[in-house]
Amino acid sequence: MVTAHFRFYAELNDFLPPARRQQEFSCVCARAATSKHMIEALGVPHTEVELILVNGVSVGFEHILQQGDRVAVYPVFEAFDVTPLLQVREQALRKTAFVADAHLGGLARLLRMAGFDTLYSNAYQDSEIAAIGAQQHRIVLTRDRDLLKQKIITHGCYLHALKPQQQFMELLDRLDLRRSLRPFTLCVECNASLRPIDKAQVLERLPPSVKLHYDSFTTCDVCGRVYWQGSHWARISAMMKMHGQPGGQA
Question: CATH top-level class for 2-85?
């Protein structure tokens, strides 16, 4: 057995019991315990971690902890570039393609409205989500800490907020996504790209009031849905403006 000293920073403290937050604490580790093993044993999913410093030196997840080690654990950085220090994974944590678990349907729809490639099905099992995330290099979105501890997942994000719009705002802030917003470019239902279509081509499929009041349309070639700038568009457009970028057309 060895004793190491841990300090977690920023939002990683949310995973710890109150007595261990925002301060250094000591913990007895099993012999040959790795940094990843101990970080997750303390309650923090490895997918939330961007940088580990042991005695001031950047290390990877497989680093074996020694007696007296001081371990500083950091989340994703947005204020400055830590790429030269990264040891925990070959690429930075942040990507802009997602797979959402079965409980995040509302968030998935908002992300698609904002133009972010997001896979979602309420039938997904945890094993499927983990496999999709690993194979397609997608960030796994979930409120299930145990899911994010699956070894094959390298990119993941635990959502602290409970409601879809709050979760959306949380992601915008944590992953610095405002400059990547592309509102109304993806189908809300199937995640495929939308394209403009002439009104005459969809006229027979439109409600009478839409025929009278709207002239610009987009369509999804996968599911065939047609979109226009209705009241729903106006609400979503206003939300996009509120979070840093004007809304687009759909």
Answer: alpha beta
